[in-house]
Amino acid sequence: MSLRVAAVRWPDDGVPLSDGDALVYTSSLRASEAELHLALRTLSEAERERHASYANGVVARRYAIGRATTRAILGRHLSIDPAAVPLRQERYGKPVLARGVAPAALWFSVAHSDDLQLVALSAAGDVGVDVERSRAIAHWERVAERVLDPAERRQLARAIEAGQEAGPAFLRHWCRVEAELKAIGCGIQGLDAHREGARPAGHRVCDLTELPLPTELVAAGRRYHAAVALCTPRGESLRPSGSATAHATAPVARPATASTA
Ligand SMILES: CC(C)(COP(=O)(O)OP(=O)(O)OC[C@H]1O[C@@H](n2cnc3c(N)ncnc32)[C@H](O)[C@@H]1OP(=O)(O)O)[C@@H](O)C(=O)NCCC(=O)NCCS
Q1: Is the pTM for the entire model greater than 0.85?
Q2: pLDDT category, 93, cuts 50, 70, 90?
Q3: Residue 261 needs a FRET pair 20 to 30 A away by CA distance; which of 71, 159, 215, 250 works?
């Protein structure tokens, strides 16, 4: 079954989550001092401490703006104040809504690349998203050997034989892997299992071929690759996959003006 994903810019005009399996918001991590000040007011004490702990000012600012945007998006969908969104962190670092405290079942995932943030939401189950700036990758064969499973490596080799550029073609695969690891919640710890072909039950993944970029990032002329993964039903264990388990399907994307790849 293909994955239905809508991709929109934040803030949007109120796209309902029920329209598809997942909804992905794009937003900019650039901000003025005044916007940073406002963002910090919606963060929890632990989040403000994390912001203050970064030695690099750009990274600190991106974190605060990104987390405030995530809170604003979740708050809108839960109909609560962004500062009151009950977030906690799972064992491997995945931020999640505190069950029993959040007013509705909602899963989310966050990814960044430069000044771009993606927040994926789903009411169906664990969701994961990843985004990478399109670029050349040094020693991509060695990296692919380390992070892709044999079926993915064959697909990648075919794409390159068919004339695709190696770096961007590798990044398309890598985004799918990271989206999947984020949906599971294991992060990079799950890479060995992935390379051995393990996939969670109900696992689906798709490329976001059309990503509506925030206006200031369109002007920068950068291109991105992105993917979304969804795992339903919850609580089932990993099972080995055949080569056809990971579906790369065109998302239902709207409104979509700026292309990524
Ligand atoms: C989460 C992970 C999978 C991706 O991190 P990343 O690519 O560095 O950064 P991204 O911007 O894509 O994602 C970061 C976000 O993922 C989320 N995240 C962190 N740990 C997570 C986990 N275990 N599961 C799901 N999501 C997680 C957080 O929301 C985080 O954003 P925040 O810190 O602002 O809250 C991380 O486990 C990791 O270690 N990545 C290593 C990447 C790597 O080795 N690349 C080389 C191969 S080419």
Answers
A1: yes
A2: very high
A3: 71
